[in-house]
């Protein structure tokens, strides 16, 4: 991930240095002044075009071969064949042509002051997308690395309390996993649409192809409703934090939990609370990685609902078998995850939250009692 992000950043920087300067020079040339020039050389071969013109500006003689500063002018402008014919006719008839001269530096000139705003905007969007993607890749690796290093420190500091090895489990409540879905989806949508819009704008109208246009339309039609749905669900329910007692859960005993929902119309008959133990395994092979998820145990709990001001308090409990393995390190390619799913089928938008919670063997509780006498376990 880090190597890919750095490589992409280098590519984006190289493109910026090599292409943006051409676009900038082409844009500046729109304000250059006109002058007459004579074509002194016009030779066309199969692989090369030799061309030169001479002009006088403010009493000084200049010679140049520049036709346009616009990046890849011959391919993108759609005007090259026409300009080439005009230059040939001018050379054969010895008639002057009009060129555009930089008044501040008269040695700079060109034949065609072509500039495409859509292609320039497309280039900017495409480069912005590349920079954004590379930075996100580097930040993702950095976040993963720092989190891994932090866990190594916590493992040394709390050798007998593995539920303290993960930052999200150290506080008194657990945030739902889908709390970042909307943010990730928005960033992903912006990235995809920026890259594709920039690419198509840069290529120009001649290179618009229906599959690319159709792909962008489909992405928009799919992502926009999902983004709206997540936003409306967030406004309706918020991101309800989960409180566990004890924290963490232990196998071989009864464990309680409470969830506060920003909606007073949730009823117990509408609710489903399910705890699942899953074995998550990421297998790497040449060129690809596959994820295998195997369910080891799952159970639904009965839920009681009470009201407190504008909140619905959902209370539930689980008896967890003693033989189940401990929750694992979610940064590993092979770990055990405990997923608590809460779903309420209510009028309008349903309530759906997922939490990854800590569950450990009862022997950890006995070890904890040896090293410190807790008063918060029941």
UniProtKB/TrEMBL annotation:
Enumerate the UniProt keywords alphabetically: Membrane, Transmembrane, Transmembrane helix
Where are the membrane-spanning stretches? 120-142, 185-203, 209-232
Q: Does the entry feature the keyword Transmembrane helix, yes or no?
A: yes
Superkingdom of this entry's organism? Bacteria
In this chain the DUF3592 domain maps to: 43-114
Question: Which Pfam families does the protein's record reference?
Answer: DUF3592
InterPro entries linked: DUF3592
Q: What is this protein called?
A: DUF3592 domain-containing protein
Please report the organism this UniProt entry assigns to the protein.
Kangiella taiwanensis
């Amino acid at each position: 991930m880090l190597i890919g992000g750095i490589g992409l950043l280098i590519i984006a920087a190289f493109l910026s240095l090599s292409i943006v300067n051409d676009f900038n020079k082409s844009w500046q040339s729109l304000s250059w002044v006109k002058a007459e020039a004579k074509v002194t050389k016009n030779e066309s071969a199969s692989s090369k075009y030799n061309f030169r013109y001479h002009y006088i500006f403010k009493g000084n003689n200049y010679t140049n071969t520049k036709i346009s500063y616009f990046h890849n002018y011959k391919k993108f402008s759609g005007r090259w064949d026409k300009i080439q014919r005009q230059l040939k006719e001018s050379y054969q008839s010895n008639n002057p042509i009009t060129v555009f001269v930089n008044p501040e530096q008269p040695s700079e000139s060109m034949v065609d002051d072509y500039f495409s705003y859509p292609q320039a905007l497309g280039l900017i969007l495409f480069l912005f997308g590349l920079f954004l993607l590379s930075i996100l890749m580097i930040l993702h690796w950095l976040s993963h690395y720092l989190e891994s290093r932090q866990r190594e420190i916590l493992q040394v500091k709390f050798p007998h309390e593995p539920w303290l090895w993960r930052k999200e489990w150290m506080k008194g409540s657990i945030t739902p996993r889908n709390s970042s879905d909307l943010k990730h989806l928005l960033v992903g949508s912006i990235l995809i649409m920026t890259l594709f819009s920039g690419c198509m704008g840069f290529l120009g109208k001649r290179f618009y192809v229906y599959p690319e246009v159709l792909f962008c339309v489909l992405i928009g039609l799919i992502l926009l409703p999902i983004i709206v749905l997540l936003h409306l669900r967030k406004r309706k329910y918020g991101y309800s934090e989960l409180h566990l007692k004890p924290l963490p859960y232990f196998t071989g005993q009864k464990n309680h939990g409470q969830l506060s929902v920003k909606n007073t119309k949730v009823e117990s008959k509408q609710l489903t609370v399910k705890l699942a133990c899953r074995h998550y395994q990421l297998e790497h092979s040449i060129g690809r990685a596959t994820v295998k998820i195997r369910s080891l145990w799952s159970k639904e709990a009965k839920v009681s609902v009470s009201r407190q001001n504008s909140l619905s308090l959902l209370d539930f409990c689980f008896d967890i078998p003693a033989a189940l393995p401990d929750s694992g390190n979610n940064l590993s390619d092979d770990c055990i995850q405990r997923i608590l799913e809460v779903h309420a089928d209510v009028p309008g938008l349903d309530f759906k939250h997922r939490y990854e919670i800590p569950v450990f063997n009862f022997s950890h509780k006995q070890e904890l009692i040896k090293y410190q006498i807790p008063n918060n376990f029941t």
